Amino acid sequence: TPKMSSTSNSSNIEDAAAHDNSSGNNVVAQKTSTTTVEGSSGDDGTKTPHYLYFDRMKAFKKEHNLTGQMLVRGIARSEEDNEDYDEDEEEDTEEEGDNSKYTMEQMESLRFILLTDNRRNLLEEYHHIILGDQADGGIMMFNTSFSYEIMDSWAACKQRLTRKSPSQKLDILIAYTHTIMEWDVWMHDNEGDMDVVVKGLATSWRNLIKKNDDAALGWDQEYTKPGVMEMLSQFKKKVESMGEDYGYDLGKFKYM
After folding, report:
1. What contacts 126, CB < 8 A, 6 or more positions away?
2. Which of 34, 178, 205, 233 could join 68 in a cystine, given CB atoms 3.0 to 4.6 angstroms apart?
3. pLDDT in tens, the chain (256 residues)
4. Do 66 and 116 contact (CB within 8 A), yes or no?
5. For residue 66, which of 231, 224, 229 has the smallest C-alpha distance?
6. Phi/psi of residue 145, each to 5°?
7. First to last CA, the chain
8. Sequence-ordered list of residues with C-beta below 8 angstroms from that of 117, at least 6 positions apart, any chain
9. Is 188 helix (H, G, I), strand (E, B) or coil?
10. Between vectors from CA 74 to CA 68 and to CA 80, what angle results, nearest 5°?
11. How many Å apart are CA 256 and CA 244, to the nearest integer?
């Protein structure tokens, strides 16, 4: 049976500071463009933890010539937030942008992958590779054949990784992993053998991380390294839960 999905952001690059649904536990994502990130001050003009966090990130990106960021983990809703949450009012709430309530501990729990021009371009490229003719569509249709596209895309990605530097491999794997995790229909609509993708991808990540130091990988340790490790943890949890919860054995994602 074909499955439908809708999207309004082809590259899914986010620089939101509020809630995120990546963990699937009582959270909601807030997505915005990637032009600028501005922190919010309190009503009395004081600099809030939200302001300080993004002011520091903005300075860090400028210093290291980074052009954007992708949200990997946001701030989970509290039980109080869930009780007051009204889905119909979500968009209005986001536009109001009241971020002054967040503590520094909450802000420090955010995880981002900072973007170079190359990472941004690869995210866009793999969005089109994975989705094909549907990449720019508003309403998408998926069925079992999508899993074949994933298998073919992994074979091409694995070949692409050969004779690349560690930093080039990192950027390719970030873009590929993010994209197939975002468009995850293949995980629960396939005819088997998807463990080839899962295990192969895990091996590529494991070899890359174990055999290279931070300098060779070219990722910053403050934002991108924790962000990538969080993305891999989420991917592991997602693919392995398919077997535990739904009976789709995709294999183990042993990236460490």
Report:
1. 153, 175, 176, 178, 179
2. 34
3. 555 454 433 334 544 443 333 333 323 223 323 333 455 555 556 899 999 999 999 999 999 999 999 999 999 876 655 555 454 544 443 444 578 899 999 999 999 999 999 999 999 999 999 999 899 888 889 999 999 999 999 999 999 999 999 999 999 999 999 999 999 999 999 988 999 999 999 999 999 999 999 999 999 999 999 999 999 999 999 999 997 777 788 999 999 9
4. yes
5. 224
6. -60, -20
7. 36
8. 67
9. helix
10. 150
11. 21
Decide the pairing of beta strands 139-142 and 111-115. Answer: unpaired
Q: Backbone phi, then psi, for 172, in 5-degree steps?
A: -65, -45
> Using CA atoms, how far apart are residues 133 and 86, in angstroms rounded to an integer?
35
What's the CA gap between 105 and 37, in Å, rounded? 19
- In this structure, the number of other CB atoms found within 10 A of the CB of residue 73 comes to 19
What torsion do the CA atoms of 140, 36, 69, 218 make, to the nearest 10 degrees?
140
Please state, in angstroms and rounded to a whole number, the distance separating the CA atoms of residues 70 and 11.
Answer: 10
- Alpha-carbon distance of 42 to 100, in angstroms, equals 6
DSSP state of 26: S
Q: Please state, in angstroms and rounded to a whole number, the distance separating the CA atoms of residues 158 and 192.
A: 20
- Phi/psi of residue 6, nearest 5 degrees: -125, 150
pTM: 0.81
**In 3-state terms, what secondary structure has residue 69?**
strand
The whole-angstrom separation of Cα 197 and Cα 251 is: 9
